[in-house]
Amino acid sequence: MGQPQVKLAQQYVRTCAQRLELGHWLLTVEDGGASEDYADVARIGTTAAHIKLYQQFWAASSDLKRLTVAHELMHLHTWTLAELVPDSHAASRSEVEERLVDTLADIIAPYLPSWRGRSWRR
Ligand SMILES: [Zn+2]
To answer: Could you read off the pLDDT of 109-122 as tens digits, one per residue?
Structure first.
């Protein structure tokens, strides 16, 4: 995906993050190339994260793009919760976390701005 699209995606992610009370996070976005996934998110610091958007993301409908961004951003909220669960439960924790994030993303995505593939700044 070209740099202009990646830049737009980064703007979109930041706009959505502000709506989700995550405006204080430093978020970077990168085209991750080919993968079976749509996207993933990695924590870099206390309030910094890097999001990779894969080929399937760029090919997805705008609704699915919005849902994907909602999903990745919800992880930022659940990381805080996950830290409260003991490490001995780490395996089931990530499964539970993934299901929780899916549910929250389904609920929240319709309230986020739509993906348009062009600048949404006024
Ligand atoms: Zn996830």
So the answer is: 999 999 987 765 55
